[in-house]
Amino acid sequence: MGTMMRETDPVDTEIDLGDSDYEDPEDRSEEPELLWKADLGYEEDEQETLSPLVDVSDTKPLLSERDPRGINDCLKVNFEDVIAEPVSVRSGDRVWIWSNALFEVAKVWIYRIVTALFAVPVSLITGLLFAMLSFLHIWFLSPCIRYSLTVTYWLQSLWGVILDIGIRPFLTSTARCFGGIHLRLTHE
User: The whole model's pTM is what?
Assistant: First the structure.
């Protein structure tokens, strides 16, 4: 009717999961990297680009910095931190190099395999536990504490009066008595 859609090339889809460490220096551009970029088959303006579904600038910090608070700094263990040979007792150079390589490869790949098997169930269980903890804190613990503070407000007031009348004058007079004492240390 008033507007006509122009036919263009078929759907062009580019997916970047961002888990490879290889980066071609020629592929760098001024635009932010996109996790999903889709051309839906029509062009409105050649200068105007379609907005991405997900912008990698939001997810890149999650992928690159996975321990931003340093919770697991104790796990930054290298081969030299675990196995160290003194000068007096040494194995062959090839044994040392292969041991180092096997340690690093085993550490990385066993972690990846165990993570692939157990990360999702453990995160599900952890999420459930924190959800239950949050539920108990928000709907049970906080109201109980608020209720007890409301009910015992008279006790708090009475305790404040006892401190003001009975204990504060005694401590104030003691402080004034000892406040006049000055010590001078001399070295003979």
Answer: 0.45
